[in-house]
């Protein structure tokens, strides 16, 4: 009789926490979506990309990248980019770890600090990747409800137990745009008293122009259990190159580096990100102007349509719509406009709209009015 | 959640091992507290299916048998290889006289089909099959129940694991709402609670400020990608019903938002469902002794619809194109012709009868050259039993199923609506609608 191994499904050999996890299906490429929905142009207002693109020096660096350099491995630990970040923030380069987008450093941190049986704490309605990585790593995720669309410091503290290794705080929070003030963060860290690592995910931090917004790069100097995540995908307009980073105490970063795959950030991304840092003041100011103008227009639109919305920090606004958000998504796609449905963020019947250039915002306004009229 | 008891065996396709299989079944039934009658039904199911598989399975490969004991039922899954599979005797329309006249295993299959509460067959590749059968525990039906009439806001909604609360909620729902809206397990509230504890059914319960039950919404998996929900069931006076229903719906969607599922849908949502949360896929004509009414079939995505391919019989192409256009869903519609020459012996349909709902649901399990006759037989038998609502579920990701459209139309079925991602792919639901 032949071996019975052929009869046993492959899934039987997989840990339950992997077996039960569903892989994420990203959106199809634009060309495919345009064919599917029968449109000749697509305004992307779904991923909070920067419609202005990268800063000028980064654009020049990209244009100057010689194709022959693609044959050469990148710097395995993003040497020059870490030097640039160190100069920018006045810290040693060893305190920075560069990843293929901040998603990679989320994974590295969880792998470094947690094992099955441990827990992480995060909000129930926030960036999903913390929860996903926890789930497929066998780590318990304690989800804390938002309070008035904001992450609730007291409830987050109450969720921390002996098994909690990491608390993830998305500040400002995606998708609500709420943020903890300096005082709120300080109180939280004092009361936590170092019982867990705290990740401040500041992916949208550069969009906040308020002196009361806490700068994680400063906070970590008083709290060695704080790690800060930032990204070049949002303000710096380099989402297509996937460059994110974390910064923390030398000891914490050294621990995370052990679970981090070297050479994961490509040369083009490193080059562009390094250049972007050298030339960002004007770009940041221009982006903030664009976001402010688009935000004002969008709030007017939602007011005119009588739609509830949540408008905080960041280059996005979230609105409650009178139909299923997933139906609205498909109808807007037929008008050539792509927004983010919020069901997956546990906000059923809400959409999140990226704040972009006038042309795209106008297209969204026209499309929204049209599809809501036909419902 | 209670832990299932699982027993796995791999046995040669040799009748000598039937005793091993039934002994395992008996032990599992004893371990899970089944009554003697259910234990014997489970053993009979396994013995007869195993005896049949010994005759038809590939002799070079073992039969893998997995027994699962849950709080409310025991289940067997046989995984086996076979080059041809003819299980026509499992059709609900097969009578004892037919089985006696048929091949030697037919009577055994008939016994197995009658002993089990339900069974299912799945292809896994060209020659791999999984045959599953379930036997349910017996539970008492709901007794009289008292309704609360005064509620104190604020209302909250949350998942619930308390068996007593769950049983009470099921009993309240079954007492307050017509049978069409209620999962059949609500007729036996303790079973409903056990199904929740076993993880087969999920719920959110609404309670008022004093902890009194104010509502229920429940759901269970349907296919690999879908969740079928029932409710919202609201127990408050009308003035508070809308807010409780909305609370239940929002909580439900929040709970399932990050589950590995593409859609939620319902063919039996109550009139309390809040507006704006779901799309209508179409309607069912529900007929009872006192007449017919329309029931909305509701749906929503949980994730972005990335498109799919569906097989389509020429007679259905206008219907499918109109449907997908109305839903703004992209599908590659691939033509299929009339059913090809089938290499299987007899066709097999699953038939799930729910007398409370005056409903039978048919689905093709195995194709065969006698499919048209088989469909007609099912219609005739259930029509003769007075069943007024006959539905047929066609998985459009399976070309051989899509090719059955012509036979269904001839038998008096009409295409009703498409359930996106409700099976292996989209499922087209037909309703039997005889010409007046």
Notes on the protein architecture:
The complex is a heterodimer of chains A (375) and B (436). By secondary structure, chain A is α/β, with parallel strands linked by helices. Chain A folds into two domains: 9-53 and 282-373, Aspartate Aminotransferase, domain 1 (Alpha-Beta Complex); 58-277, 3-Layer(aba) Sandwich (Aspartate Aminotransferase, domain 2). Helices cover 39% and strands 15% of the residues of chain A. Chain B has 436 residues and is α+β, with helices and mostly antiparallel strands. Chain B has three domains: 1-138, Histidine kinase-like ATPase, C-terminal domain (Heat Shock Protein 90); 156-301, Gcn5-related N-acetyltransferase (GNAT) (Aminopeptidase), CATH 3.40.630.30; 308-436, Aminopeptidase, CATH 3.40.630. A seven-stranded mixed beta sheet of chain B has the order 6-7-8-9-10-12-11, with helices on both faces. A five-stranded antiparallel beta sheet of chain B has the order 1-2-3-5-4, covered by helices on one side. The longest helix of chain B has 21 residues, at 36-56. Chains A and B meet through α13 of A and α7 of B.
Based on the model shown, name its key terms:
heterodimer; A: about 375 residues; alpha/beta; Aspartate Aminotransferase, domain 1; Aspartate Aminotransferase, domain 2; 7-stranded mixed β-sheet; 5-stranded mixed β-sheet; about 40% helix; disordered N terminus; B: about 425 residues; alpha+beta; Heat Shock Protein 90; Aminopeptidase; 3 domains; 5-stranded antiparallel β-sheet; 11 helices; 19 strands; about 30% strand
Layout of helices and strands, plus pairs?
The complex is a heterodimer of chains A (375) and B (436).
Chain A: H1 16-19, H2 30-37, E1 43-45, H3 56-64, H4 79-89, E2 96-99, H5 102-113, E3 119-123, H6 129-136, E4 140-144, H7 153-159, E5 164-170, H8 182-192, E6 197-201, H9 216-222, E7 226-231, E8 244-247, H10 250-257, H11 267-277, H12 281-305, E9 309-310, E10 316-320, H13 325-334, E11 337-341, E12 350-354, H14 358-373
Parallel strand pairs in A: 1-11, 3-4, 3-5, 5-6, 6-7
Antiparallel strand pairs in A: 2-8, 7-8, 9-10, 10-12, 11-12
Chain B: E1 5-11, H1 18-31, H2 36-56, E2 63-69, E3 73-81, H3 96-101, H4 106-115, E4 118-123, E5 128-136, E6 156-158, H5 163-176, H6 189-197, E7 202-207, E8 213-222, E9 226-234, H7 238-256, E10 263-266, E11 279-288, E12 291-301, E13 308-312, H8 317-327, E14 331-335, E15 348-354, E16 359-366, H9 371-384, E17 389-395, H10 399-402, H11 405-410, E18 413-419, E19 427-432
Parallel strand pairs in B: 9-10, 13-14, 16-17
Antiparallel strand pairs in B: 1-2, 2-3, 3-5, 4-5, 6-7, 7-8, 8-9, 10-12, 11-12, 15-16, 17-19, 18-19
Helix pairs in contact in B: 1-2, 2-4, 5-6
């Amino acid at each position: 009789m032949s071996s019975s191994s052929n009869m046993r499904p492959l899934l039987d050999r997989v840990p339950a926490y992997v077996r039960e996890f569903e892989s994420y299906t990203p959106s199809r490429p634009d060309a495919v979506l345009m064919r599917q929905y029968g449109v000749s142009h697509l305004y992307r207002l779904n991923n909070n990309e920067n419609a202005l693109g990268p800063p000028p020096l980064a654009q020049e660096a990209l244009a100057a990248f010689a194709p022959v350099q693609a044959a050469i491995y990148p710097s395995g630990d993003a040497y020059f980019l870490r030097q640039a970040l160190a100069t920018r923030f006045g810290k040693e380069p060893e305190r920075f770890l560069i990843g293929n987008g901040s998603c990679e450093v989320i994974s590295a941190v969880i792998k470094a600090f947690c094992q099955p049986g441990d827990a992480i704490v995060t909000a129930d309605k926030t960036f999903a990747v913390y929860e996903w990585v926890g789930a497929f790593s066998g780590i318990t995720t304690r989800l804390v409800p938002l309070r008035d669309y904001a992450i609730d410091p007291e409830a987050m503290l109450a969720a921390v137990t002996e098994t909690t290794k990491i608390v993830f705080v998305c500040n400002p929070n995606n998708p609500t745009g709420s943020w903890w003030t300096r005082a709120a963060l300080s109180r939280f860290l004092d009361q936590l008293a170092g019982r867990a690592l705290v990740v401040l995910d500041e992916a949208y931090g550069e969009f906040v122009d308020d002196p009361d917004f806490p700068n994680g790069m400063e906070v970590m100097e008083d709290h060695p259990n704080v790690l800060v995540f930032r990204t070049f995908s949002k303000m710096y307009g380099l989402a297509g190159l996937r460059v994110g980073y974390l910064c923390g105490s030398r000891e914490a970063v050294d621990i995370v580096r052990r679970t981090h795959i070297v050479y994961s950030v490509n040369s083009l991304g490193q080059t562009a990100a390094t250049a972007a840092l050298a030339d960002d003041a004007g770009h940041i100011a221009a982006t903030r102007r664009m976001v402010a103008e688009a935000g004002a227009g969008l709030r007017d639109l939602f007011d005119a349509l009588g739609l509830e919305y949540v408008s905080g920090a960041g280059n996005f606004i979230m609105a409650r719509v009178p139909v299923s958000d997933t139906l609205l998504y498909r109808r807007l796609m037929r008008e050539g406009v792509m927004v983010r449905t919020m069901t997956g963020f546990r906000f059923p019947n809400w959409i999140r709209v990226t704040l972009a250039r006038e042309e795209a915002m106008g297209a969204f306004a026209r499309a929204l009015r049209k599809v809501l009229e036909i419902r | 959640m209670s832990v299932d008891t699982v027993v796995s065996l791999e046995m040669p396709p040799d009748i000598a091992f039937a005793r091993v299989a039934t002994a395992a079944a008996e032990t599992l039934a004893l371990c899970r507290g089944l009554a003697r009658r259910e234990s014997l039904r489970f053993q009979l199911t396994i013995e007869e299916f195993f005896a049949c598989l010994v005759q038809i399975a590939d002799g070079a490969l073992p039969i893998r048998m997995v027994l699962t004991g849950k709080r409310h039922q025991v289940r067997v899954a046989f995984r086996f290889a076979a080059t041809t599979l003819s299980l026509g005797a499992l059709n609900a329309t097969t009578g004892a006289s037919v089985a006696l006249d048929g091949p030697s295993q037919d009577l055994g299959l008939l016994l197995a089909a009658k002993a089990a509460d339900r069974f299912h067959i799945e292809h896994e590749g060209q020659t791999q099959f999984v045959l599953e059968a379930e036997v349910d525990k017996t539970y008492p039906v709901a007794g009289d129940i008292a309704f609360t009439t005064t509620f104190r806001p604020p209302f909250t909604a949350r998942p619930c694991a308390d068996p007593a609360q769950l049983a009470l909620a099921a009993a309240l729902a079954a007492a307050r709402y017509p049978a069409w809206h209620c999962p059949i397990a609500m007729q036996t509230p303790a079973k409903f609670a056990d199904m929740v504890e076993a993880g087969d059914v999920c719920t959110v319960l609404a309670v008022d400020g004093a902890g009194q039950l104010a509502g229920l919404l429940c759901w269970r998996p349907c296919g690999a990608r879908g969740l079928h929900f029932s409710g919202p069931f609201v127990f408050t006076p009308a003035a508070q019903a809308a807010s409780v229903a909305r609370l239940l719906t929002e909580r439900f969607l929040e709970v399932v938002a990050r589950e590995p599922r593409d859609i939620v849908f319902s063919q039996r949502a109550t009139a309390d469902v809040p507006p704006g949360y779901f799309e209508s896929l179409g309607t069912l004509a529900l007929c009872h002794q006192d007449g017919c009414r329309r029931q909305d079939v509701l749906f929503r995505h949980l994730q972005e619809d990335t498109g799919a391919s569906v097989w389509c019989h020429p007679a259905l192409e206008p219907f499918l194109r109109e449907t997908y256009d109305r839903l703004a869903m992209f599908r590659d519609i691939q033509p299929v012709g009339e059913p090809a020459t089938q290499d299987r012996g007899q066709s097999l349909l699953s038939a799930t009868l729910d007398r409370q709902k005056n409903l039978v649901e048919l689905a093709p399990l195995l194709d065969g050259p006698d499919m048209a006759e088989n469909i007609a037989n099912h219609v005739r038998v259930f029509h003769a039993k007075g069943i007024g609502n006959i539905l047929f579920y066609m998985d459009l990701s399976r070309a051989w199923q899509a090719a059955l459209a012509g036979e269904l139309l001839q038998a008096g079925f009409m295409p009703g609506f498409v359930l996106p991602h409700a099976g292996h792919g989209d499922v087209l639901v037909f309703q039997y609608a005889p010409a007046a």
